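Ops channel
N.P.: pipeline sanity check, posting one input/output pair.
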């Protein structure tokens, strides 16, 4: 199983530049479920659709798994990833 690591710098399309540095890239995934995850951390752009994604939130990682569901959010068709578990960063 493959997974992609997301950082908060990748949140929202206005923070994601296209590879040529031009206009922001369009989001393509939506993270659903889990607790204590801000709404502004739920929409992302990934280059490759993997089975799982891992989002760093403060001192923890939130893990999400791809579903076959697609939702329309602000005019974008986003593939849905459901929350599956949380791990903590060792200090």
């Amino acid at each position: 199983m493959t997974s992609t690591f997301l950082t908060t710098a990748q949140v929202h399309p206005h923070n994601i530049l296209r590879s040529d540095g031009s206009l922001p890239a369009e989001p393509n995934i939506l993270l659903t479920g889990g607790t204590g995850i801000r709404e502004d951390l739920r929409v992302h752009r990934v280059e490759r659709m993997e089975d799982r994604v891992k989002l760093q939130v403060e001192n923890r990682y939130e893990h999400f798994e791809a579903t076959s569901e697609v939702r329309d959010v602000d005019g974008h068709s986003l593939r849905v990833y459901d929350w599956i578990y949380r791990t903590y960063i060792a200090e």
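N.P.: looks fine end to end. The CA atoms of residues 25 and 63 lie 23 Å apart.
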